[in-house]
Batch of 4 targets.
Target 1
Amino acid sequence: MLESKIKELTAAVEALTKAINASQAPSTQPTAEPETKVVEPTPDPTPTLSDADLSGLLVTMSREGHKVSIREKLTDFGAARVSELDAADREAFVDWLIELSERA
């Protein structure tokens, strides 16, 4: 009688072990992965100058005799220095400076 109970318990333990292993095994069915969308950044249509490039251009333009017009333009924007310009004014100032350099 004891041997039959041991066999029953052994069978039950083996069945539980198989069930546990089956539930932990990776699924053979393919799982649907969520669709991911790749968004590529759009390039800025008007690239701005870096601070170093802007500084170099200002030095060049000042040496070519445009120092007064540069000061006047900064004053028009309400700034004494380029570093005092807000982002929109800086962009407009850079555009103006590039146009000035192309005319010179």
Target 2
Amino acid sequence: MMYCKKCQRLYEGAVCPLCGSARRSSAPTEGDPVRILSLPFFEAAMVEPLLEEAGIPYYVMGWGAAGLGAQSSLRDIMVPYGYHTQAKECILDVFGEDSEIGRALPACEPDAPGEDPAE
């Protein structure tokens, strides 16, 4: 399991599949911000209360086409690496793997506690 500091995503392999960089990658640490979802505004608004209720720290970064309103922009939902698995389980418990939100979750899973990600 590797973490790309530029893309803020977890991945398997030698280079980040999004940016192609290996230089900005390392084993994830507990507090690294991990982008778990990129969703349209309304879908992100359904996920945020779940994370709050579960006590999972998160923040949302918005981006999209200027002038088209909040509804047309995407929201990146970020959680610390240490909460990554808990956040995914919380989301899947409510929406399920076959939902649009469930399918948007990255497939990459963190290593089990105590495992050496460099092996």
Target 3
Amino acid sequence: MLKETIIAKMIDFYRGNAEDISHFLKVYAFAHTIGGLEGLDASARDTLEIAAIVHDIACPLCREKYGKSWKAVRENVFRTKTGIRFLEAEMGAGGENGDPLPRI
């Protein structure tokens, strides 16, 4: 039931973007199949499948902020220090006590 709720919320989150919805559903199906073939226990399989459902949750924000160019997103987000700053600034990410993310 939890996965179905998360899937429904992600469909709402993507606001009808068929490409994003189709992509995360395909990744979820692959994760489900691979988890079964690998013999994962129910808890590990649930974790894998939920991670698959939400794995691109930042994509709409990145497209809004940097445009649809994958190169622009990569240049602005995926550089290690910039990526950490992005997470801290945009998503409030941090440690359990709100500490900043560790520097790499």
Target 4
Amino acid sequence: MLGAVANAAPAAAAIMPPATGPRALGLWLSFWRNSPARTFSFSFLRTWGGRYAPDVVAGQWWRWVTGLLLHASPMHLVANLALLLVGGVCWVVSEGGVGGP
């Protein structure tokens, strides 16, 4: 009886292969889509130093710096980090690599 159960496991795994390629990307993006549980409200971001023009005009100049450190969602942060990584690698390669001439 145990042999029959053990033999059934590989067949089930063959039916549902792990997500790879475009399917994996779609699943990952669907997880990070904006939802109320994964985003921050305007008032929360403003309280934590988000850049809001009327506040900057009123003399809160530090919002220009702190606003750069805030992100609206985890996906926003991940996208910014990915762009920084790709842009940084392209820049280093165009300049001759690390420790170039």
